[in-house]
Amino acid sequence: MPKILIADDEKEIIRLLRMYLETDGITVLEANDGLQAVDIAKSNDIDLALVDIMMPKMDGYQVIRQLRQQEKYIPVLVISARVSLSDRVLGMDIGADDYITKPFEPLEVAAKVRAQLRRLNAADRRMPAKNVITVGGICLDVDECTVAKDGKVTDLTKTELKVLQLLMSQPRRVFTLEQIYENAWYSEAAVDDNAIRVIISRVRDKIGAEHIKTIRGLGYRFEE
């Protein structure tokens, strides 16, 4: 169930919006000043914020700046009686996702909230799964280009990553020099045995020589 924050010093506005939003199955948290809004946002996993600009203790602009410093991205919709172009531009420039002027139509605000939540859900679904390969106590993080063994994390070069990723993709399978060269250097034209040996040596230094076995006359394989 989505959870949103409404920050406004006019309680009647919060009551009106709450009535429409809770009908959509949304949980509403209420703040009547800027400091309270920031505290609620820090202590609750909210999905969206509706923020008034003119509030006591801390204005809406400062609230938005505080929200934008949090690790989680929270869509922010401004609801304000300030209608000038400069106010709207400032609101968007400091990080608001939309600017709604008072007086407003509650149905329109509810529709804008639903639209923002749909975009947020769609973005979450597009997030790729973390690309990690774990074999025999060796954990290869392809996205971060690191390898971990016994809790120690070590950076890899791009070529080291490609070679280790190939070997770990199918443990105990022997990969030929041609296959390794094609995968790491994107070429099968001229296999450079020395270049491969150098990379293999570097990878062994980082994960332990026992994990990469040389198959004489053929290539290399990963041992668990």
Chain-wise SSE layout:
Layout: E1 3-7, H1 11-23, E2 27-31, H2 34-43, E3 48-51, H3 60-68, E4 76-80, H4 85-93, E5 98-101, H5 106-126, E6 132-135, E7 138-141, E8 146-149, E9 152-155, H6 158-169, E10 175-176, H7 177-185, H8 193-207, E11 212-215, E12 219-222
Parallel strand pairs: 1-2, 1-3, 3-4, 4-5
Antiparallel strand pairs: 6-7, 7-8, 8-9, 10-12, 11-12
Helix pairs in contact: 1-5, 2-3, 6-7, 6-8
Overall description:
- The protein is an alpha/beta fold.
- It has two domains: 3-126, Rossmann fold (3-Layer(aba) Sandwich), CATH 3.40.50; 132-222, Winged helix-like DNA-binding domain superfamily/Winged helix DNA-binding domain (Arc Repressor Mutant, subunit A, Orthogonal Bundle), CATH 1.10.10.
- Helix content is 44%, strand content 22%.
- It contains eight helices and twelve strands.
- The protein has helices at residues 11-23, 34-43, 60-68, 85-93, 106-126, 158-169, 177-185, 193-207; strands at 3-7, 27-31, 48-51, 76-80, 98-101, 132-135, 138-141, 146-149, 152-155, 175-176, 212-215, 219-222.
- It has a five-stranded parallel sheet, with helices on both faces. A four-stranded antiparallel sheet has the order 6-7-8-9, with helices on one face.
- β8 and β9 form a beta hairpin.
- α2 (34-43) packs parallel to α3 (60-68) and α6 packs across α8.
- The longest helix has 21 residues, at 106-126.
- It starts with a strand and ends with a strand.
- The model has no long low-confidence stretch (mean pLDDT 88).
